[in-house]
Amino acid sequence: MTTSEDRAKAISNYNRAQDLLHSSRTSEEDHELLESALVSRRYWRLAGGEQEFAISDWLVSRVYVLLSEPKLALEFALSSIAHSQKDFPAWLEASLNEGVARAYKGAGNLAEFDHYKDLSLQALALETDYEDAQIIAEQIATL
């Protein structure tokens, strides 16, 4: 398989996971959501860079939070920020920290939840693109 085919599969599965993430789901669709997130992650490992790795781990974490799997949610959320680099855009730093906050909330650790939510808001304040900032602000508001 070529890199462009891997990339196309990563994007397709990411988009499917996002569609399912933001809809009412049956338990079968919960399984499809998890599968899509993990398949996307796999193909980003083959065709992506650090930013795609971080986003894919953020997505898997988000799915595990929804599925009430706090240990796995936290593992992937922390992995997402481990990929973080100083040249990541502010919106992405905000989103990744939001993911860690969400995972800590799911695990019942409210002190760490507050810490990472604050980090998310601090990063968001640095975002200069209004549309990007609004998307992440909406994401943070669901915490």
Question: Which percent range fits the helix content?
Answer: over 70%
The total beta strand count reads: 0
| Biggest sheet architecture | none
Strand content is: under 5%
Count of discrete alpha- or pi-helical segments spanning 4 or more residues: 7
**Low-pLDDT segments:** none
Give the rounded overall mean pLDDT: 96
Query: What is the first-to-last residue Cα distance?
Result: 39 Å
Principal-axes geometry comes out as: globular
List keywords for this structure.
143 residues, mainly alpha, 81% helix
Put the structure in a nutshell.
This protein has 143 residues and is mainly α. The chain is built from seven helices and no strands. The chain has a domain at 70-143.
Q: In words, what does this structure look like?
A:
The protein is mainly α and 143 residues long. The protein has a domain of 74 residues. Helices cover 81% and strands 0% of the residues. Helix 1 packs antiparallel against helix 2, helix 5 runs antiparallel to helix 6 and helix 5 runs parallel beside helix 7. The radius of gyration is 15 Å and the shape is globular.
What's the layout of helices and strands?
Layout lengths: L2 H19 L5 H21 L2 H17 L3 H13 L7 H18 L2 H16 L4 H12 L2
Helix pairs in contact: 1-2, 2-3, 3-4, 3-5, 4-5, 5-6, 5-7, 6-7
